[in-house]
């Protein structure tokens, strides 16, 4: 599911991939459900391709979202997106204790928290992809 959820540089929020063409993709905002084209010149990143630095290896973003969901019992994040950097780090240590504190900045954590809240508001089941991957591996 996270493979079809996109972050578009310069545009707020997250977008769901609707269809793709030769030089553009059609996306739908998770916030207001408006559809719009994103052209090839725009920087687009799939949430399924993002990972976070840890002290050993990289952790996929979906694993972090699942840990956040378990910590919050499916609700939105308990830390505000207007919190202080130390509060972000403390919250993220509870979710991902071994994250690389030198390479993961408070702004990164803030973005992850805001994305998580958008996914919860939009009722996106990011655990579904994890379950499907586990079934395929068996």
Task: Give a nutshell description of this structure.
This protein is α+β, with helices and mostly antiparallel strands and 138 residues long. It is 37% helix and 22% strand.
Describe the structure.
The structure is a single chain. This protein has helices at 61-72, 85-95, 106-121, 126-137; strands at residues 5-8, 15-20, 24-29, 35-39, 44-46, 51-53, 58-60. By secondary structure, it is α+β, with helices and mostly antiparallel strands. It has a 5-stranded antiparallel β-sheet, with no helix packed on it. Strand 2 (15-20) and strand 3 form a beta hairpin. It starts with a strand and ends with a helix. The relative contact order is 0.17. The model has no long low-confidence stretch (mean pLDDT 87).
Helix fraction?
A: 25-40%
- Along the chain, the helix and strand elements come as EEEEEEEHHHH
Q: Which blocks of ≥5 consecutive residues have pLDDT under 50?
A: none
Kindly provide the radius of gyration, computed on alpha-carbon positions and rounded to a whole number of angstroms. 15 Å
- Strand order of the biggest β-sheet: 4-3-2-1-5
Percent of residues in β-strands = 15-25%
Mean pLDDT: 87
Count of discrete alpha- or pi-helical segments spanning 4 or more residues:
4
**What is the SS-derived class?**
alpha+beta
Strand tally is: 7
User: Judging from the principal axes of the Cα atoms, what is the shape?
Assistant: globular
Distance from N terminus to C terminus (CA atoms, Å) equals 20 Å
What characterizes the major β-sheet?
5 strands, antiparallel
């Amino acid at each position: 599911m996270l493979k079809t959820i996109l972050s578009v540089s310069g545009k707020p929020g997250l977008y769901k991939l609707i269809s793709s063409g030769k030089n553009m993709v059609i996306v739908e905002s998770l916030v207001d459900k408006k559809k719009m084209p994103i052209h090839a010149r725009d920087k687009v990143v799939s949430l399924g391709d993002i990972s976070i630095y840890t002290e050993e290896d990289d952790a996929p973003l979906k694993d972090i979202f699942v840990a956040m969901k378990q910590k919050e019992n499916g609700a939105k994040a308990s830390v505000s997106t207007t919190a202080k950097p130390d509060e972000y780090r403390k919250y993220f240590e509870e979710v991902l204790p071994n994250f690389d504190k030198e390479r993961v900045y408070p702004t990164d954590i803030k973005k992850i928290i805001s994305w998580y809240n958008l996914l919860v508001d939009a009722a996106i089941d990011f655990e579904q992809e994890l379950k499907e991957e586990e079934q395929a591996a068996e």
